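Recall the central idea of this unit: under ordinary conditions, the amino acid sequence of a chain determines the structure it adopts. In this exercise we apply that idea directly, starting from the sequence alone.
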Amino acid sequence: MRWLWIDRIISLEPGRRLVAVKNVSAAEDHLHQHFPAEGSERVLPIMPGSLVIEGMAQTAGILVGHAGAFKEKVVLAKVSKAELTADATPGCTLRYTANLTQRTHQGAATEGKVELRGPADDAFTEIGAINLVFSHLDHNGAGEAFPEHNFVFGETFKNLLRNSGIDPDKVEPLPIEA
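Accordingly, the structure predicted from this sequence is:
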């Protein structure tokens, strides 16, 4: 993963729930073109909805990966629901809450809530729901061969976990419920 769309993990309940935050900064390159000034219109920097969804995918993916002690190559397989009712602009903070609803050897499903706090706001306001389905590549059933190393949970993700107080090398896998 080249870019992280979350800054820090706030809380983790293994196998149940993970909360992460993303601070939207005017220094982020993607904001300069989304939407640039045209004619008499001012610049309107908005974090694209697809990147908000990716932030939830990373949050929920870490939750799913943690449940399996980061042994599986967890990849997003399906966005089953994505509703966003407000835009994130520079100075805002996004809070992602992912809940694990199903976990099997083949993959997992999550339900997520997205909240936003503006620069002048005291509290977060719910702005969306994102439900996702993940696949464990090593159990994909298609007979595809993938590299042995876990290219999904590389050093970038491990550093994010460590900086959030979670040691990815000391996680025990949780049992999969029948």
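The chain has one domain: 8-170.
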